[in-house]
Structures are given as C-alpha cells and as structure tokens.
C-alpha cells in the first residue's frame, strides 16, 4: 500500500499543477481583448476543464491494471500527464481503460491483475486485487472484498453516487458503446439502468465531440428523481449536462383555446387559405394564385407561423407582378403625361410613396420592400392566414407535451436542441413526450433506459419500437445489484402477474427475508413510524398510497420509481394496487426499492 500511496501522491501533485496551469491560462485569456469571440470560446473550454480537475479531487485514482508482461496503468476520473508529457493516469472513458471494466477470468484481455484502490481524502486506505489469468499469488498481491461489495453494503444517503470504480462488464459495454444512434437498455429493478444512463452521458461528452457541442440532456420523470441523481454527473466532472423534466422543457403560458392532439394538425391546416382570393385595396389575387402561394410556403414542412411569413413574401411578389402588369397595360392605353398620374394613384392607394425611378421604369424592388412592411397587406393576409398561438390552440389542458406539439406545428422546432439525450424511466413516456424529445434531438442520438414492468398509467406505449421506431440497438441488464435475492423472490409472484413474459433478474446478494405485518387500519401510521425510527434501519422510505400518510420519509407510490433506500416500509399494498390502473406496477416498484430490508404493513 505504501507503493501505491507514493504513486497517488505524485498523481495529486500533477492534479494540483494542472489546476494551477489552467487558472493561469484563464487569467491570461481574461486579459486578452483582440478577439472577443475567440476569448469567450477559450474561456468556456478552460472553465470546463477547471471543473473537471476540481471534481477529480475525490478518489482521483481508483484502479490499476497489470499485464502479464509486467506493464501497468493507473485508471482514474480524468487523464493526467507528467511534466514530460507521459500518461500517468488514464481517464476511465479512454479505450486504454476498457480492460479494467471488461476483463474476466474467462477473458482476461492480457491482464494478470486488476487492482482497486480506495482513497480517503488523498490517502490510500484500501487495496484489493483480482487475479485474472489464474496465476499464483505474488508478494504484493492483496486479495479481498472488491469495491462492488463495499459499495453495495454501504448505507444509502438519499443521493445516488457515481459508480465509475464499480461498473460491471455488461454495464460498461453499454456506457462506452460506439453506437451513435438510439441505444435501448432495459432490465429489472436494481440492475443499474440509471447508473448506465448517467455514465453514458459522461462518456458521450468525452468520446463524441460533435455530439457534445450541442450538449447532453438527461430527461427524468419528476423533480424528486432528478434531485436523487443530481450529484452523479458533477462528481464525474460534468456540469454542462442539463437534467430536466417535462415541465422544465415546456414552459406553459395558459390561455383559452381549442384543439386536442388528434385534431391539432387538421385544425392548424384549417387556418390556411384554400380556394379563396386575397384582396389588398384595389388589387385582387385570384384563388389559383393564393393556393399556389400556400403550396410554395408549406412545401418544405414549415410550421404554420413561419410558413405564413413565406406565404406573405410570395403574395407580395404576386402583388408586385400585378402592379407591373397594370403599369404595362396603362402604357399601351395612355399617353406619357397621364402615365405618371395613373401609376402614382395606384401606388398611393396602397399607401406607397415610391415615385418612378426613370420613366417609364419604376423601382419595383423598393415597392416590394414597402409592401412587405405595409400594415394593410398584413391585415389582408390575416383574413386568410391568421397568426396562431400554441397556448390558445390547446386551451386549458394540463398536457405540456400537447402544448409542445402545438408549438411545433404553429411556430416550428424548439430553439434548444441537444446532441444526445438520455431518457431515464423511459417506460413512463407518452407518445407525445417521445415526439417532444425527438424534436430536441435532430441527430437521433439517444440512450433510453427503462422497464415496462414498472410502467405507470400515463403511457399507452408497451414496446420499444412503439416508442423509438425500429432502428435501435437493444441491451438487457440481467444482474441485480441493489435488491437481495430474498426481496426479489418476494416480488416475483407479482412480476409474473404484471409481466408474465419477463424473466426476473438475478441478485448477487442475500439478506433478511421480508416481513409482512398486519395491524388495525387505525394503527398503520404509528407502526410505520415506529419501524422508520429504528436506528438500525438506515435510510428509510415509507411508500404508501397517495394521501394516506404525510411526512418527510413518505413517498407516494407513483413517485417511487428510480429511488432506493436501505429499508422500505410498504404501507397498505392493496390500496396501492387499487389507487390507479397501474397500481399493481406501482406496488412492484415499491417492493423493489430496498437494498437491505423490506416491511409490508397491511390493515387487518
């Protein structure tokens, strides 16, 4: 361990030097003013790097691999180089770090030993080795419990921790997948879907700069869930990832209005001209011209309001052509003295001041520009192609995804788009929510994680092709790291009822058998409170039907998805099942949140 401490001391020296160098570079850039844009770009890069370096302070180095040939690499949160430029610490996302996660005794990938380091502050407090090639132990080998066991036995804190040092092979293969399209990951409770999703976000930012330029969005079902996972990415040095719910992405501005999802597109099209003329004072465009202008404006799939502007430009072109034609007709019917007055009268009738540029030619470009800004033209177009408001279109509905759909049809795509989107608890999304997310990811680069056995009642989607289409790569996580075998066995009959085709995951841990307790209905709250106050139960979550109990420890059953506790107290399971259509799935979620012990308290 002393040898490792010396190496770790050297790594922290390099970290301190890198922080100092980055601060000095930032100060130098701040003093530069010759190119403000280049300065801002470089400042952004240096600030991001400074965040990565400072976040790496905790457990800077957590692993080491030694090949059979005697070569070794240390693995950590970031990459570091010596003063001479040699790599002294490999970023966990780099290809060189892959064997640390992927090697097994069956496929050692050229490794003799995988070493796990446990740090407290800047000190090495634990070393554990895995001998992968079957060779005999050597002096210096330390074989004991690995970090995964330590992490699983550690008490919960109410916040998810990163697992960069304990990612397992099936998880790591998904995290560092080279696939840039849609990756779907499913698996039962406790198989690490959320950890895979968050570490995948960090990997995308590292490995795919073109995607990272447009940012990464992590989309979750509710604010409680996002608060639970909020510390993971910053601990990996990633502060530029946005965590958002539906309400965060779609800001609502309520007003009265009309259409619903199925009727929305026809309702919008009904506000565009078909078979009607357009009158602007003395000028009249026939229905054929108006229809042609509409087809021209909508041919590239523009939304209603942007297409209206294209329609207006086409209409103005037609009006200018009509004026030119009228002028030519006047030329053949009138002598020169009367010509100026006739044309001037036409222009004045439209509120225009343009005079002939050189007789008999007129500055028609200037006429066009004036017509584009003419309120009379805009009022005439409003009669056949009115501007629409998305909020008015959907009325008082609380469906934010429907509002986003209306905005897309009326105003066009959202301004804020991302290079990659991670969707957690993906089984909860409705069809409109999927469409909302796809609009925000033009590259169609997504990591989607979920479990349809845990689906709530909001969505009608029951398969991944329904959600994301047919073009995706599919992975299933099979090993349960959170829930003990005894708790999984307790929940298995319910899983067989709600998802008979789904194979239960396999737990790697054993613990106490769940306890079922029956009490008078009036005593439910008191019994749950007494169990929760037992200091031996660690972090406790009381999962109950909505409205039954109140308190800081109480989680309404529909909101429990994605959370985990040392001890879970499920109150009145029958009432949880009866609360809503997906109540049986809500109960399954509740029964699989515990890492150590489960109490089920039912009324007699």
SSE layout:
Elements (H helix, E strand, L loop, with lengths): L1 H30 L4 H20 L5 E7 L4 E5 L3 E2 L5 E5 L6 H5 L8 E10 L2 E9 L15 H7 L15 H7 L6 E6 L5 H15 L1 H4 L3 E4 L3 H7 L2 H4 L6 E3 L1 H4 L11 H9 L8 E3 L2 E3 L1 H12 L5 H30 L2 H14 L6 E3 L2 E2 L1 H9 L2 H10 L5 H5 L5 H12 L8 E4 L7 H9 L6 E5 L13 H5 L4 E5 L1 E2 L4 H14 L7 E2 L7 E5 L4 H9 L7 E5 L9 E3 L8 E7 L1 H7 L3 H9 L2 E10 L1
Parallel strand pairs: 2-4, 7-15, 7-16, 8-9, 8-14, 14-15, 17-18, 19-23, 20-21, 20-22, 22-23
Antiparallel strand pairs: 1-2, 1-5, 3-4, 5-6, 10-11, 12-13
Overview of this structure, please?
The protein has 604 residues and is α/β, with parallel strands linked by helices. The protein is built from 24 helices and 23 strands. The protein has a 6-stranded mixed sheet with strand order 3-4-2-1-5-6, covered by helices on one side. A 6-stranded parallel sheet has the order 9-8-14-15-7-16. Helix 12 runs antiparallel to helix 13.
